[in-house]
Write a structure and sequence with these properties.
mainly beta, about 220 residues, Intein C-terminal splicing region, DUF2490, Lipocalin, signal, two-stranded antiparallel sheet, single chain
């Protein structure tokens, strides 16, 4: 257990030190994900992501998403309708610019378990209302969690986490980006967990790494 705690602390320390050593090449994403039951079948999704070009302060993107989902099966096969607000501050010719995007999205999530392997498939369709453009995009996410010190993802469990997500446009160019992620997570209790890891984002003309720290809250709003 002490070794696992040391690994978790080491990963976070490595991320913080890397921010200062590679400001131009390594970004940081701080993320909160809420998925809260509001009835037996309905859930409220709420999400905030604060994405930086460096450790903090040089904002790349602020993303806020929310939506209402419905379980087609007990705690599984969830369909959701959502909305996202995205504030981006990219650099153009060395100067900061600002763009605002409004996004409507529909998604389907299904979960599977094979022994110690927890799988999640997410299919998402996005309608993106940019300031001077409208685009549609499809995303497929495949995630995997594997408990380390317990057989199940019960409280006080460390786990390995990985995912791959591909983004495809409905027009040309079809390929938008691909994200590959690996992390170490910890289950705090039955409704909360935390992860720290590294994500590599591949785009047509850019390949950039991100340190990610995410907090997950599934506290139900029902008895």
């Amino acid at each position: 257990m002490k070794i696992l705690r040391s690994l978790a602390a080491g990963l976070i320390i490595f991320g913080i030190s890397s921010f200062h050593a590679q400001k131009s090449d390594l970004g940081a994403w701080y993320m909160y994900f809420g998925n809260n039951k509001i009835s037996k079948k309905l859930n409220w999704h709420n999400e905030i992501q604060y994405r930086n070009f460096d450790a903090g302060g040089d904002l790349e993107q602020l993303l806020i998403r929310t939506g209402i989902g419905y379980d087609l099966a007990e705690n599984n096969n969830n369909i959701l309708l959502g909305y996202g607000f995205i504030l981006s501050q990219p650099y153009a010719n060395g100067e900061k610019t600002e763009n605002i995007e409004h996004r409507i999205f529909q998604q389907y999530i299904t979960k599977q378990k094979f022994g110690r392997f927890y799988l999640q498939h997410r299919y998402r369709l996005e309608q993106r209302f940019l300031e001077d453009d409208f685009r549609m995009r499809f995303r497929y996410f495949l995630g995997l969690n594997i408990p380390i010190n317990n057989k199940e993802l019960v409280p006080k469990t460390f786990y390995a986490s990985a995912y791959n997500e591909i983004f495809l446009h409905f027009d040309s160019p079809v390929f938008d980006r691909n994200r590959v992620y690996g992390a170490l997570g910890y289950v705090i209790n039955k409704n909360m967990r935390i992860e720290a890891g590294y994500m590599n984002q591949i785009q047509e003309n850019r390949n950039r790494g991100q340190i990610q720290i995410g907090f997950y809250n599934n506290i139900p709003f029902t008895k």
